[in-house]
Design brief:
There is one protein chain. It contains 26 helices and 18 strands. With 715 residues, it is an alpha+beta fold. Strands 2-3-1-7-8 form a 5-stranded antiparallel β-sheet, covered by helices on one side. The protein has a 4-stranded antiparallel β-sheet with strand order 13-15-16-14, sandwiched between helices. Helix 11 packs across helix 15 and helix 16 packs across helix 21. Tetramer of two alpha and two beta subunits. It is found in: Cytoplasm. One of its GO terms (molecular function) is ligase activity. Belongs to the class-II aminoacyl-tRNA synthetase family.
Length: 715
């Protein structure tokens, strides 16, 4: 067995983009491992580890063989009938094949299979040294990195995410000769840009991590994260507060620093008069600082900055951080004070001059449409319609405030503050913020009923409008975030238990759109005209597209919860009017699927569906709904099934009306025995037409009972 040695690959660069660094690092390691595996090189790939810092990508594999194993080569040549002429002598084709393999015809072998016989060339090729293959492997890994816009530098003809400066490739203690991106491999790395300016000698692959640490670089991103958390906690103790360091901010700070050092800082208490969300956004998003709260969860005047250096004078760094944040907080306070002078409702008129989308009009036009939808929805779900209309009319006003102009991520949040300040009800003010929920994956829906109504109305109008003008998502492009809007709509309807007819609501949203918007989405025909579709026909087409688009978002939503696609399709087949009802049916079907009778009943339903479909095709009319006449029963199994169906129908009527589908399916599962007996002892296609029609009608009743909930046959 070939000797195994640890492998270290380090590529040194200019500062890499922090938000992409983790993905670049994992992709680099994956590319190296894939390259080794593809070439059959034995390596401890399950123990491979990615390292990275702002100025380097690295991969370490604890054991990699010195060379490939011997490579067995087999090339199939011409078939026997083409390889030999009529006299049994080698043809030109066979000579050509042998020559291409570098051997004589006599060195070829014959391969016989049940599909024919061929000449083949077999050989064993010595494995190449890993050192000879690594440069190629590294180049492949670098080409496979997710770099949307690679850059060029100097006068080179190659490109990368950032300019590169050094390359270390060590197999054990040996340097692997070779190069990539114009760099020649060596054992000289680089430490911290300011704290360790001398080159770093790396003795071997296993000592690299310690060598980095000794040169003030924590190359292990997890080690940096742990250090940042510990130091932030320690710095927060000095302030007596509680830091808020979420994973996203931690990741970004870790990818901006090689030797993180936390420093407790303070700003003027007068800035606390500004809504805390604005201050926190400035600290986290713009400056990558960690805000500090008191025990009650209220923002304090303290924050924590993370330096990328262990300074001899941390007080100067503290002053710098405080000096940087002061003007941004001063701007936020100015925006806040100025915005408070103008009632939120006064911005409504200005919305008329702000275009939402050319064919869909202004933000004012959108607000009017959303207000009407909100009024209708509110009346249906028992929410104050006047409050819903008021909230909808104010929902876009904060977009014109100074604060949101500077901090767009605060839309909704500032609407809530300004509405409260100017006397709007607490319910309306809260809805102006919560209707944006869910803002991202994993976010909760709006908590209040008014916010839920506004959230649904807003998303219905957005989906209908953008689809109508022909800008629905395609591929990875979704500039209006319609996929997120559709999932937010579906989640709100389901998780809030809102009994709304989805198709009917989409119809209402489409009916509010101007005909000009519907015409804007039509593609010109060959004659250059828009086609013959009128507005009603266009809405009908859009309705089906929108309904399918929303339902498609639910596939992933339910898959994440453990529901399988067959269960989803079984419910989708009966087209429930509301998504809340869809959810109840799906959960009932999943519960039914766990019952021992489910497999047999699903198979029976599938058999029934096939029989009824074939019969409908033959006679040109559906069977379901026909009356069963007991006078035509010839077998006890028919009577028993008819009685069982009648009993089940009677006993489940109340539960079915109440939407308790779990109870209905639990009762219907008791039909297994009479159904199995029926199929075991009754011939459906009896010779007597009346008997046959009666038996088909009985099966139609069976299918109808299950189809009242879902198409069980699809399970």
């Amino acid at each position: 067995m070939a000797e195994h040695k640890p492998l270290l690959i380090e590529l040194g660069t200019e500062e890499l983009p922090p938000k992409a660094l983790d993905e670049l690092s994992s992709a680099f390691l994956r590319g190296i491992c894939d390259g080794l595996a593809k070439r059959g090189i034995d390596a401890a790939l399950d123990q491979a580890k990615a390292y990275c810092s702002p100025r380097r990508l690295a991969a370490h594999i604890p054991g990699v063989a010195q060379a490939q194993p011997e490579q067995a080569i087999e090339r199939r040549g011409p078939a026997m009938n083409a390889a030999l002429d009529a006299d049994g002598q080698p043809s030109k084709a066979l000579h050509g094949f042998a020559q291409s393999c570098g051997v004589g015809v006599e060195q070829l072998e014959k391969l016989e299979t049940d599909k024919g016989a061929w000449f083949v060339f077999r050989a064993v090729k010595p494995g190449q040294p890993v050192a000879a293959l690594l440069p190629e492997i590294i180049e492949e890994a670098l080409k496979g990195l997710p770099i949307p816009r690679p850059m060029r530098w100097a006068d080179h003809d190659y490109s990368f995410v950032r300019p590169v400066h050094w390359l270390v490739i060590l197999h054990g203690a040996e340097i692997v000769d070779g190069g990539v991106l114009g760099l020649k491999s060596g054992r000289k790395s680089r430490g911290h840009r300011f704290m360790h300016s001398q080159p770093v000698h790396v003795a071997d692959a296993d000592s690299w991590l310690d060598a980095m640490r000794a040169s003030n670089v924590l190359a292990d991103p997890q080690e940096r994260r742990q250090r940042i958390r510990a130091q932030v906690e320690q710095a927060a103790k000095q302030t007596g507060g509680v830091p808020r360091l979420d994973d996203a901010l931690l990741d970004e700070i870790a990818n901006l620093t090689e030797w993180p050092v936390a420093i407790a800082c303070t700003f003027e208490r007068e800035f606390l008069a500004v809504p805390p969300e604005a201050l926190v956004t400035t600290m986290e998003t713009n400056q990558k600082f960690v805000p500090v709260f008191d025990a009650a969860g209220k923002l304090t005047e303290h924050f924590i900055g993370i330096a990328n250096i262990d300074s001899n004078d941390p007080a100067e760094i503290r002053k710098g951080y405080e000096r940087v944040i002061r003007p941004r907080f001063a701007d936020a306070k100015f925006f806040w004070d100025e915005d408070l002078k103008t009632p939120l409702a006064s911005y409504q008129e200005q919305l008329k001059s702000v275009t939402y989308q050319q064919a869909l009009g202004s933000l004012w036009d959108k607000s009017v449409r959303v207000a009407e939808l909100a009024r209708v929805i509110a009346n249906r779900v028992g929410v104050d319609a006047a409050a819903a209309t008021r909230a909808a009319s104010l929902s876009k006003c904060d977009l014109l405030t100074r604060m949101v102009g500077e901090f767009p991520e605060l839309q909704g949040v500032m609407g809530r503050y300004y509405a409260s300040h100017h006397g709007e009800s607490a319910e309306v003010a809260e809805a102006l913020d919560s209707y944006y929920q869910p803002r991202y994956g994993g976010d909760a829906i709006a908590a209040g009923k008014l916010g839920q109504v506004l959230a649904v109305a807003e998303r219905l109008d957005t989906l209908a409008g953008i689809f109508a003008v022909g800008m629905k998502p395609g591929g990875s492009k979704d500039p209006f975030a319609l996929r997120r809007a559709a999932l937010g709509l579906a989640r709100t309807l389901i998780e809030a238990g809102m009994e709304l007819d989805l198709r009917g609501s989409l119809v209402e949203a489409l009916e509010q759109l101007p005909d000009s918007a519907l015409a804007a989405g039509l593609k010109p025909g060959k004659d250059g005209k828009s086609g013959a579709l009128n507005a009603g026909q266009r809405r009908a087409i859009l309705l089906d597209e929108l309904y399918d688009f929303v339902l498609d978002r639910l596939r992933g939503y339910y898959a994440e919860q453990g529901f399988d696609n067959a269960q989803f399709e079984a419910v989708l087949a009966v087209q429930p009017s509301s998504l809340a009802d869809f959810d109840r049916r799906l959960r009932a079907v999943a519960e039914f699927g766990r019952r021992p009778e489910a497999v047999s009943l699903a198979a029976a339903n599938k058999r029934v569906a096939n029989i009824l479909r074939k019969q409908a095709e033959e006679v040109g009319a559906p069977v379901i709904g026909r009356v069963v006449d007991p006078a035509h029963f010839e077998a006890d199994a028919e009577r028993e099934l008819a009685d069982a169906l009648a009993s089940a129908r009677l006993e489940t009527a109340e539960a079915l009306g109440a939407g308790d589908y779990t109870a209905v399916l639990a009762r219907l599962s008791q039909l297994q025995a009479p159904v199995d007996t029926f199929f075991d002892s009754v011939l459906v296609n009896a010779d007597n037409p009346a008997v046959r029609a009666n038996r088909l009608a009985l099966l139609g009743q069976l299918k109808a009972q299950f189809s009242a909930i879902a198409d069980i046959a699809l399970l």
